[in-house]
Predict the structure.
Amino acid sequence: MGKFSKETQKQLIEHARQLYVKGFDADTVASILRISVNTVNRWAREHNFERSKRSQLIALSEIRRSILESYADMLEGKTPKIKPDDAAKYATAFERFSARKQVLTYMYEAFELLTEQYQRNIQKATTKQEKEQALADLQKLRANMDIVLNNLTIEVLGND
């Protein structure tokens, strides 16, 4: 751990947590982040990745999906999973975001979907070379995504 700055270590732990929550094993997380498997396992214990996995918050996309599924259920005469009052509350809360916050939310969601596709490509790789190339591509993508999201987050939070 001594070779990472505090900020770098914090970012790596969070990336490791995100990958772990998405179902990647310690070996794959270590390969993606270019750290040792022992470090990933230690962080998983120290930062309770399992708890994070179990208690992962519902993303806005999942809330929207639930609302749309409930609406479809209502159209089909079924009992909706979400009550109309609850759906209205979710919609109102979402509308309260500024336009930039909505853009930030959508960008983060799109980046996560793109990352998940890269991760599926890594898992589907049949040769070591394909896996290493996919890992390298994901690492470059994540680095650029982090820069874009960090800059936009600073801009959004600075303008409110």
